[in-house]
Design a protein that fits this description.
Blueprint: H1 6-21, H2 27-42, H3 46-77, H4 84-118, H5 120-136, H6 159-174, H7 184-192, H8 205-212, H9 220-253, H10 261-291, H11 309-315, H12 318-333, H13 336-347, H14 351-374, H15 378-407, H16 415-432, H17 441-450, H18 460-464, H19 471-490, H20 496-501, H21 505-522
Helix pairs in contact: 1-2, 2-7, 3-4, 3-6, 3-7, 4-6, 9-10, 9-19, 9-21, 10-16, 12-14, 13-14, 14-15
């Protein structure tokens, strides 16, 4: 069941009605049933994976807490006979056991993620080679092509998101940030909450659980505000993002013939498509959750107005970046090996390296994992490494950049400097996105090379016909993209929805009606359109 379908609208409406009818103390049960129903309606085979993750993480948290309780009880019962060193040893032993449980759960669940995400191409290749070999030698062992019974693992809906969310919860339990959820079914709701299951955001238990289980009272303001957010998400997805996909695919598949400005347009359009698609889907998720009185974490903060690549990644997919920072970067940066490295370098007089390397090495690990998270092929690892290199270069050359600006008699806060930095960041990030729309690493670098060739061979007629972007669609996209980016810019001075709700009621309904009409009239539909397709929904 797609977020963009009449079926989903009916599903949400029915769930909302039931949610607010039943007593508040059991409303979380309605959400649990709805979440598992949504997952089953999408593909019932998905349930196996999410149930396994839910149970293993729940048991892991239970064992971690049990070990901690046993340690505390033992120390309390023997406090008079235990020395300070004895207590330290007891705590160290308990922590070692907890760490063992944590690693078992982490490796098991990430093992599932790796298997379904990265092994499929190799298993399929082995299957095809086996079938070819058998047919070549006419062994007659097969009556069909199903030589390997599991030649394809199922790629469960949203597995990257709920796996990261669940493992983050378990790590927080290990560090004692909060108590575990003792009710298995309540924890199952945290893992499977249906608005965020397709593409996030990745929520933290300490934040989401406060609202997920309380059973919010009916508030029409929440319904209205959530519906506004849903329609705004559909505006970005259906009017901006989905109109650009055809041009991007056509251009990149024929890049040897359509070089220069054609490819530059494809990169520009893909940045808009990806933002409209991903942030639009997040808007739908946040809006639906808001209708139930549940606030999800914001995942975007005007990324196209970033003045550096590091700032861009603080504004784009915020919950994933925060997850990597909290659970990979910080643990690695304070790891005893990083501390020893810094100390060794300082002792050898390499003060600058001692300061930088313990930061850059964990950062490199983060970007390798980020690349792997985004895709199962080598081009995404290269993409992650390119991001790392640009961030390091930006950090190292930042003092020089400031001196150049000062020598030109300009202020960092001046419009021209900020505008330059925003444009530079947008262009660099657009070029890095070429790894997303190329079928392998070599094709991506070929695309970059072709972008600077044959600039004089551009024709709008080719765009309208051969490259599948009719003039009417282009006009609609340009107008909608300007509106989208203008609203993003205005948003920095406060919520646009709050300003709309401060208007007289007729004006509020007029604006909502215009939004509905825009999505209905200008939204991208028709033959060949896949309403189920979200770019990040396949991660």
């Amino acid at each position: 069941m797609s977020f963009i379908s009449i079926e989903f609208a009916a599903f949400v409406t029915a769930t909302l009605a039931l949610y607010y009818i039943v007593p508040s103390k059991i409303r979380w049960i309605v959400l649990l049933v709805a979440s598992y129903s949504f997952y089953a309606l999408y593909d019932i085979q998905n349930l196996f994976y999410i149930i396994i993750t839910t149970i293993t993480v729940y048991l892991g948290a239970y064992l971690i807490e049990k070990i901690a309780k046993r340690q505390n009880d033992y120390i309390a019962a023997n406090k008079d006979s235990l020395t300070k060193e004895d207590k330290k040893n007891v705590k160290a032993s308990a922590k070692s056991k907890q760490r063992f449980i944590l690693w078992i759960c982490v490796l098991f669940n990430f093992g599932i993620l790796i298997a379904v995400k990265y092994f499929n191409p190799y298993i399929t290749s082995v299957h095809n080679l086996s079938v070819a070999y058998i047919n070549m030698y006419r062994l007659n062992l097969l009556h069909n092509d199903d030589f390997l019974p599991f030649k394809n693992f199922i790629m469960p809906l949203g597995i990257s998101f709920y796996t990261f969310q669940s493992i983050g919860y378990l790590i927080d339990i290990f560090y004692g940030k909060y108590e575990r959820e003792r009710n298995l079914f309540r924890f199952a709701l945290y893992v499977s909450f249906f608005p965020q299951i397709i593409q996030g955001p990745i929520s933290r238990f300490g934040e989401l659980s406060k609202e997920l289980y309380k059973g919010s009272s009916f508030d029409f303001v929440n319904i209205k505000s959530g519906f506004y957010r849903v329609m705004w998400g559909l505006f970005k997805k259906l009017i901006v993002a989905d109109r650009l996909g055809g041009y991007i695919s056509a251009t990149m598949s024929m890049k040897e013939n359509y070089k220069g400005i054609y490819i530059l347009l494809a990169l520009l359009f893909y940045s808009l498509e990806l933002y409209g698609d991903f942030s639009g889907g997040i808007d739908v998720a946040i809006g639906v959750a808001e209708m139930f009185g549940i606030k999800l974490t914001e995942n975007f903060q005007r990324p196209f107005f970033s003045k550096s690549i590091s700032e861009y990644w603080q504004r784009w997919h915020i919950t994933l970046g925060t997850w990597f920072k909290d659970y990979i970067f910080f643990p690695l940066s304070v790891n005893k090996y990083m501390v020893k490295l810094g100390k060794m370098l300082r002792e050898r007089g390499m003060t600058y390296c001692a300061k930088k390397l313990p930061i850059y090495i964990p950062m490199l690990a983060v970007w390798l994992v980020t690349g792997m998270w985004h895709g199962s092929t080598g081009r995404f690892v290269v993409w992650g490494l390119c991001n790392f290199v640009f961030i390091v270069l930006g950090t190292e050359f930042e003092p020089i950049s400031h001196r150049i600006v000062a020598s030109a008699g300009l202020e960092e806060s001046s419009f021209i400097v900020r505008f330059y930095r925003v444009c530079k960041t947008f262009i660099l990030m657009s070029f890095l996105r070429i790894f997303d729309i190329s079928h392998d690493t070599r094709a991506a670098f070929d695309g970059v090379r072709y972008a600077f060739a044959d600039w004089g061979l551009f024709s709008w007629d080719k765009v309208y016909t051969d490259l599948l972007l009719p003039k009417e669609d282009l006009i609609v996209v340009i107008v909608a993209a300007v509106i989208m980016l203008a609203f993003s810019l205005i948003q920095r001075k406060g919520s646009i929805r709050d300003r709309v709700f401060a208007l007289p009621t007729p004006a509020q309904w007029l604006i909502l009606s215009l939004l509905i009409v825009a999505v209905s009239v200008f939204g991208y539909y028709g033959m060949g359109y896949d309403a189920a397709s979200f770019i990040y929904g396949n991660i």
